[in-house]
Design a protein that fits this description.
Clp_N_dom_sf; repeat; Rossmann fold; single chain; PROTEIN SMAX1-LIKE 8; disordered C terminus; Clp_R_N; about 50% helix; NBD_SMAX1-like; about 400 residues; Double Clp-N motif; alpha/beta; 18 helices
Length: about 400
Amino acid sequence: MPTPVTTARQCLTEEAAHALDEAVNVARRRGHGQTTSLHAVSALLSLPSSPLRDACARARNSAYSPRLQFKALELCLGVSLDRVPTSQLSDDSPPVSNSLMAAIKRSQANQRRQPENFNLYHQIQQQQQQSSSSISCIKVELQNLILSILDDPVVSRVFGEAGFRSSEIKLAIVRPLPQVFKFSSSRFKGPPLFLCNLLSSEDPDSLYSGPGRRGVFSFPFSGGLFLNSNSNIGDANCGRIGEVLARKKGRNPLLVGLSAYHTLASFSEMVEKRKENVLPVELCGLSFICIESDVNKFITSENFDKKCVDLKFEEMGQSVEKILGPGLLVNFGDLKAFVSNDDHNNGLDDAVSYVIEKLTKLLQLYGGRVWLIGAASYENYSKFVGRFPSTENRLGFASLAYHFSQDFFRG
């Protein structure tokens, strides 16, 4: 059953509700019986300062001109809307379709997962149990609404037909990036690059030092990487991670890409064995602990036990207090465990939020003596920043891109 517009608006913030009203107007003008995700996309792209249009501009395929690709998107969206059957107009606003209402509910679930909303959600849940209201009090923000609408298969197909990727648009929304350049394999014969941009010599922080310098790129994540055959890739990897660890802010490396987990395993092994020239001088003697198996057990266990989580983090806190060196580097492993709950199991959501909350408190309690490090595929990284948009900053993550195959590192 479609949902009345007034009911759907109760789930939205003022900004998101305005976007819904515009979508309803699009559906009404076209004589459609329901307001769907396609109407919402049409309305969002037409807003004066459209976050969706801005994200598309940064995630577009550079092989085509912006005007041409946006024209293609306009045509694809128009064709899809033309296929929606018309109905007799009534005085009432076209109700919200099941697919769009599902996107709103997904947005509520995503906001509920965010650690800063963990306690608030439980309070709201208790209040709802005491009342007869079936409407959630979690107000969906516009950003989260857009992210959920992009998950709609019909919407993804429209963007795909126009040459866009929903995953890249979502990443551009949650984490604004500079203009992106992409290289096809037919025009660029070096190791595969993903979402990379060539730095300008006009940039004072650029690694590019002159017109004769080639093969130097910087990813839209932190750091840069020399792509020439004389580079020692292993040392470069350690150097990039070490530079992040030595920072005062944003000092917890999150390795992202095809070879991220392999790089993390190699780096962790070298730190654990205390090999020379792996870390900056000021971090020599840094202690190391891997809690990947513990995190996986905490999050995926059928019976989530907060006491076990509390005990593990108390043990780490005690270790930090006893350490004589710079501090403790905590490897939480693959970020996949934090985003594996595609079935939206509330129990798993609570477990993930609680573990993130404990990691945040560990950093707050021990200040500059605790570091975090982990890895993620591009897909899981996109899911993580989509579900927990503020957590990346709260945990002080600095994303480092590693999009090379393992064979390239070995070779």
